[in-house]
Amino acid sequence: MKNNHKIPVTKVATENETKEQNINKELLAILVCPLCAGNLIYDKPKQELICLFDSLAYPIKNAKPYMLENHARTLTLAEKDALKSAKKPN
Ligand SMILES: [Zn+2]
Fold first, then answer.
1. Is residue 5 in a domain?
2. Apex 38 CA angle, 70 and 90, nearest 5
3. Are 34 and 68 a contacting pair, CB within 8 Å?
């Protein structure tokens, strides 16, 4: 009896699989705003997760997102505008 049969690992091919600096895409995909349950925008340079709906930016520290309202900072209008235009498709 052979017990060393290996189960083939089916790797899902993701297009342009790039290594994110700290936080991975899978984690991002499941993260939503705790207030409105909306999708978040990952601001990589600032290491923040942004909810445009609430105008809040949740900080990421040591690769851990702090999804708490009292940790979040309020976005400025300029930041919101920049994010909105960046989010536009094409
Ligand atoms: Zn929100």
1. no
2. 120
3. yes
> 83 lies in which domain range?
15-87
User: Residue 4 C-alpha to ligand 1 middle, in angstroms?
Assistant: 49
Does the residue 4 lie in any domain? no
State the distance from the centre of ligand 1 to the C-alpha of 37, rounded, in angstroms: 6
Put simply, whether the predicted model's pTM sits higher than 0.85 gets the answer no
Q: If you measure from the C-alpha of residue 51 to the centroid of ligand 1, how many angstroms do you get, rounded to a whole number?
A: 5
CA 55–ligand 1 middle distance (angstroms): 7
Give the domain CATH number at 26: 2.20.25.10
pLDDT digits (tens), the chain, 90 positions: 556 666 666 655 554 445 545 567 788 888 999 999 999 999 989 999 999 999 999 999 988 899 999 999 999 999 999 988 876 666
